[in-house]
Amino acid sequence: MIVGRISDTRTRLLETAIELMYVRGYSAVGVQELCTRAGVNKGSFYYFFPSKRELALAVIDVYRQRMLDLWNDALTADYAPLERLRRTFERTYEVHCGLMAVNGQMHGCPLGNLALELSCQDEEIRQRLCDTFADWIGMIDRLLRQAVATGALPVIDTTTTAQTVVAYFEGVMMLAKTQNDLAVVTHLPHSVMALVRAAVQAPPR
Amino acid sequence: MIVGRISDTRTRLLETAIELMYVRGYSAVGVQELCTRAGVNKGSFYYFFPSKRELALAVIDVYRQRMLDLWNDALTADYAPLERLRRTFERTYEVHCGLMAVNGQMHGCPLGNLALELSCQDEEIRQRLCDTFADWIGMIDRLLRQAVATGALPVIDTTTTAQTVVAYFEGVMMLAKTQNDLAVVTHLPHSVMALVRAAVQAPPR
Which of A90, B8, B14, B162 has a CA-to-CA distance to B194 between 20 and 30 Å? Predict the structure, then answer.
């Protein structure tokens, strides 16, 4: 079962990185600490990840896949499109309630955290995060287009609206992290719907 | 002129920290690098700042004062309140256009950057950032109340709306930093007005 063990080691390193970097960011977490915490020696680390930044790219890919899974569910669930949009943000809120109960602290959006820490330091990481946000905006764009197609929304600039929704989500998560309190996130699903209505009232120039 | 020199040294350290931490964050910038860049020895550093985190708190206070100055102007300028809100975000956009031209890179909102990097690592820094965001939300709240008082807005939940505006601003700055492109910020003044209109259309529950 060598393949199994190798795969386990990579997974353990990845999960440890996800855990530590979520709380303390990228720069403050060292390779030695990652290895110790994961119970892996440095040779194994560098076998799987040529550098800490390669590990960070793998962490981003994990979050990207989780985001895609969540929004794929939203695109195909058996409800009206705008109801699926609202429910997906409700689910996101509930996930963060659960995380905060476990962690005793609000850690924010892991993609947003890495985006602000690293976008000016590493071009490849910036690009990977930029692509991930673009994918996310694209998923919400598709959901809004479904709403337009079913007549639930008039014709609006769905792409700009999707971008506004993601920006608002990231800002709310930042305030919640800074306040160490999820109260500001409580209104998220409602406010997202208000943002979509704002797009209807005043389509971007 | 000893007082002058002492004051100069503190100012130089503060300006160097503002410059370096804006690009690379807090963890990635060391005290030795700050001293070398500022032309100050370590003894002088620790005379003014017992630790790097004290310097970070002073950096936050500088940004807080700039924010208060900007929004004090917005509260007292000789235009209608909503026009002052729009113009202040236009000014913010222009400032970041200028910064990006000088730096060749979009560095985002310095307060947002520190908030996401440090809120889970240092309780005093988190609280200082939280207070700063609360002050900022308070300034926009006062501006919206002026708009309500003059009849430019109906009675809305100005505090929640101000919070939504700040969250949206921070999220847009995050996307702009991740895209290394200010295009997403271009619509900021317009979108903020749409958010305020959304509050009128659908007051929070």
Answer: A90
Compute the distance between CA of residue A19 and CA of residue A22 in angstroms, rounded to an integer.
5
What digits encode the pLDDT tens for the residues B84-123? 999 999 999 999 999 999 999 999 999 999 999 999 999 9
Q: Residue B8: how many CB atoms within 10 A of its CB?
A: 12
Task: Write the single-letter amino acid at A140.
Answer: I
Rounded to two decimals, the pTM is: 0.91
**CB-closest option in A166, A197, A204 to B171:** A166
Nearest to A117 among B116, B129, B164 (CB): B116
Whether the complex's predicted ipTM is more than 0.95 is answered with no
Q: Is residue A105 classed exposed, middle or buried when 0-12, 13-18 and 19+ CB atoms within 10 A define those classes?
A: middle
One-letter amino acid at B75 equals L
Domain coordinates in residue numbering, chain A: 1-50, 54-201
CB pair distance less than 8 Å for B171 and A168 = yes
Pick the CATH number of B57-201 from 1.10.357.10, 3.40.50.720, 3.30.310.50, 2.40.70.10: 1.10.357.10
Amino acid code (one letter) for B28: A
